[in-house]
Amino acid sequence: MKFLVNPSKFNEIADYIFKPILILSIVLFALGLLFALYLSPDDYQQGSTVRIMYVHVPSAWLSLLTYAIMTLYSIAALAFRIPFGFIFNTAVAPIGAVFTLICIISGSLWGKPMWGTWWVWDARLTSVAILFVIYLIIIFMNFSFENRVVREKVVAIFILVGSVNLPIVKFSVDWWNTLHQPATISKLSKPSIDPSMMTPLIIMTFAFIMVGIAIAILRIKTEIISRKSYLS
Amino acid sequence: MKLLTKIIFFLYREYKLNLSGVQDILTNIIFFFVSIFIFIFSIGPDKETISLIGVGILWTLLLLSSTLSLRKFYQDDFENGNLLIIHLNGFSYGFIAILKTLSHFIFVQIPFLLSIPIACILLNISNEKLIYVFISFTIGSLILSCLGSISSSMNLMNQRNYLLGSVIVMIFSVPIIIFSVGIINLEENFNSLTNILFGILLIVFAINPWASGLCLKLSLENS
Amino acid sequence: MIIVKDLSVNRLDKKIFEKVNLALTSGNITILKGKNGSGKTTLLKAILNIIEPSFGSIYWKGKLLKKNLYDFYNHVTYISDKNSSLTKLTVKDNINIWKRFFCSNINNSQIEIALKTLKLENYLNQKVGTLSLGETKKLEFLRLIIENKKVWILDEPLSNLDESSIELMKQTFEDHVAKEGSIIFSSHQNPGIYVTEEINL
User: Fold this and answer.
1) A210 in a domain, yes or no?
2) Which of A44, A150, B143, C173 has the least C-beta neighbours within 10 A?
3) How many CB atoms lie within 10 A of CB C30?
């Protein structure tokens, strides 16, 4: 597992696995879209709009997951002096922002026919919007410091401080009475979702993960190269 | 004993500094009042509406005006090397952050607190609510001071994007606004909401020396 | 008192200086010489433990500096190339703040004598912002007298000073050394100040 913290090891492994992951992500996406658009049934209440879920839910999960991994890497980078954490943070923040944006847009497209409005100010939506702004601040911070060392560490500190938002996003549907429905899939209880809808959801989630990893590999590699040129 | 005198004269120094720049603080308060006027003109002088949203206006404007003075938080002391001298006088970075936060609360936020009764009269907020307004503002402005310390210490070396600091404060102050306005408007929930607000204060107060201290150290190291 | 062993500092992955050795005992004056950008300020800041060195170690009174930091800070005065007096306040206010903030045991008559020798006594009620560059620099040196500590670490103390002030600095340095104090200062040339050690970066 050393490639997760060591830039040169990461480069080796990344060259090895990039193509398989790319192919896998294309295949999974095709399969997932096929399932989501044709093979899965309509919801008896929501009709065809339920298919938005197959984009909305994976992107929401991944926006949280990306931030959580960034938090872990920030801790690793600050506490154990692992510079790869800074590289990871700089590279991955835009990916998380895009996932969050997809989540917000698809959610509001879903909300218009279901709730009759594009946007409501309930806890889940607000906290996801805040998550998006936090991602944007991270990206802007990456552009606005002259000094690289200060930039990296300040961004890492900001990520740590901003991670208080994560549990709020996750548990907002349980803590407050919101318009947004509570989580259908949780680890502790049996999922309240039919297997015919579960399959495309899982496939789409893996497709999103694979796409995310593929883009992340590309971005991390560019980041490593840009730092190499700094050295020489 | 020596430390205590040092702390007292650190605060004395801050007092002298703020006294020489007292027009800045007064300008902040004037900004606060002028924005209240503008708010009232833009929604019309209907008494019912104003008393309904008055508390929200008060909180929004307090937040905006306190972000105005953020750049002064550490920047002056950082640029003329005083931060370093204070550190060399035996104050660790985290302790400097705590003291600076306290002095910001005392010399910048308390003048605001004193001007709140006048603002309450202007916004038609009833006298019975004044005590709730005061409690929520006192706790809330302490939290704002801590957040201001964190964000302005993060942006010490930021030469390009000055507004980022204000955005950081505002994004983290969303929960404070929710609970503080709740204290005033939902009087039956007074106890629970005050406790939550106190909890947030303690969390922020605990994070502040760590985050600000680290950022101060970084900026001094690389300046 | 201060021993610097094989100190190297890298910043932004760039080597600034390498393997500097330095020993400062009481009654010594050390000068750091070097071109612009050779790392004089960086070395001084590394000695003050503001910049973390990449390699090497610094000792204070036989112990590692890091473990003994605040004791070290109790014995050291640092004057940077920045003007640290508060420009909005008067000279008198500045002196008062310093005197109390540093818990100085200097009495007023000593400060008055120092002000007279620095030729600042007429500016006492003026704001620092209205003084000239050399005068603010001299006001900075008043901190050396007020703090009254053993080790002086000075960054470019001689820039912006006229010849008579430089003579004055020479005299001050000799007095301090005679009182068993020690001085490190950086400068790109030495205008005839007696030094015991010279380090070229």
Assistant:
1) no
2) A44
3) 19
**Nearest C-alpha of chain A: how many angstroms from B162?**
9
Q: Is C66 on the interface with A (CB under 8 A)?
A: no
Q: Which helix (H) or strand (E) holds C8?
A: strand C2-11
Q: Using alpha carbons, select from C118, A55, C182 the residue that is nearest to residue C110.
A: C118
| pLDDT surpassing 80 at residue A229 | no
Q: Is residue A218 part of a domain?
A: no
Determine the distance from the C-alpha atom of residue A163 to the mean position of all C-alpha atoms in its chain, rounded to a whole number: 14
Kindly report, residue by residue over C128-181, the tens digit of the pLDDT.
Answer: 888 888 888 888 888 888 888 888 998 888 887 888 888 888 888 888 888 888
State the burial class of residue B152 (Cβ atoms within 10 Å of its Cβ: 0-12, 13-18, 19+): buried
- Give, in order, the Cα–Cα distances in Å from A40 to each of A27, A102, A191, B207: 18, 22, 17, 48
Residue A67 lies in a domain: yes
ipTM: 0.89
Query: Which chains neighbour A (Cβ–Cβ under 8 Å, 3 or more pairs)?
Result: B, C
Q: To the nearest whole number, what is the mean pLDDT of chain C?
A: 85
Query: Domain residues for A153?
Result: 51-196
Q: Which H or E element spans position A166?
A: helix A165-175
Domain for residue A16, yes or no? no
d(CA A159, CA A137): 10
Phi and psi at residue B53, in whole multiples of 5°?
-105, 10
> Are residues C95 and C137 in contact, defined by beta-carbon separation less than 8 angstroms?
no
Min distance C104 CA to chain B CA atoms (Å)? 11
The SS3 of residue B182 is helix
Nearest to residue A91, comparing CAs of A207, A3, A229, A213? Answer: A213
Mutate to test the interface with A, among B158, B173, B178 (most CBs of A within 10 A): B158
Q: What are the residues whose beta carbons fall under 8 Å from the beta carbon of A212, sequence distance 6 or more?
A: A62, A66, A95, A99
Q: How many domains does chain B have?
A: 1
What does A104-131 look like in DSSP terms, one character per residue?
HHHHHHHHHHHHSSS----HHHHHHHHH
Q: Where are the alpha helices (DSSP H) in chain B?
A: 2-20, 22-43, 47-68, 75-79, 82-88, 93-104, 110-122, 130-154, 163-172, 174-185, 190-222
Residues of B in contact with C133 (CB under 8 A): none
Give the pTM: 0.89
CA angle C149, C154, C160 (to 5 degrees): 130
Q: Which domain holds residue B191?
A: 2-222
CA atoms within 13 A on the CB side of C190: 18
Q: What kind and span of H or E run contains A155?
A: helix A148-162
